[in-house]
Design brief:
two-stranded parallel ribbon, two-stranded antiparallel sheet, about 10% strand, single chain
Length: about 140
């Protein structure tokens, strides 16, 4: 199963994914989710460090070698070409996908409460399904 780097490095992705660790599911899927979470933690750190090193490579620096930013916190560059090259390389990394060891999607019932943000972050690892009705209710419907 694949997830884009741009999703996994979003601030609340890991905490949202971690909520899946509290979901009742098969032992196999619990183990896979736990393994995925550990791998994602490591991967997020690598992607963030890589992004930071690209910024350090291209950004404008002061006399102390620190990255300069404007009053709004936006990083400054010596020229538009360096900024474009930096953004291009960062976007290339963010568009790459990580392959996570999850053999099947996590089932989320249609009546479970989630936010649109959580669904967007987890859309590659969840499947929204109808809750199965007990046999008695199925017979009544006929």
């Amino acid at each position: 199963m694949k997830i884009k780097n741009g999703i996994v490095i979003e601030d609340d992705f890991l905490s949202t994914f971690q909520e899946l660790l509290n979901k009742d599911t098969s032992a196999k899927q619990c183990l896979e989710l736990s393994t995925c979470f550990d791998e994602l933690l490591s991967h997020v750190n690598i992607v963030r460090r890589t992004k930071r090193s690209l910024i350090e490579k291209y950004a404008k620096k002061n006399n102390d070698g620190e990255i300069q930013s404007d009053e709004k916190g936006a990083i400054l560059f010596d020229d538009g070409e360096k900024k474009q090259k930096c953004l291009s390389e960062i976007n290339e990394i963010l568009n790459e996908s990580i392959d996570i060891p999850l053999s099947e999607t996590v089932k989320i019932y249609t009546d479970e409460i989630m936010t649109p943000r959580k669904v967007r972050l987890l859309k590659d690892v969840i499947e929204i399904v109808e809750r199965e009705q007990p046999e008695k209710e199925k017979v009544k419907e006929k």
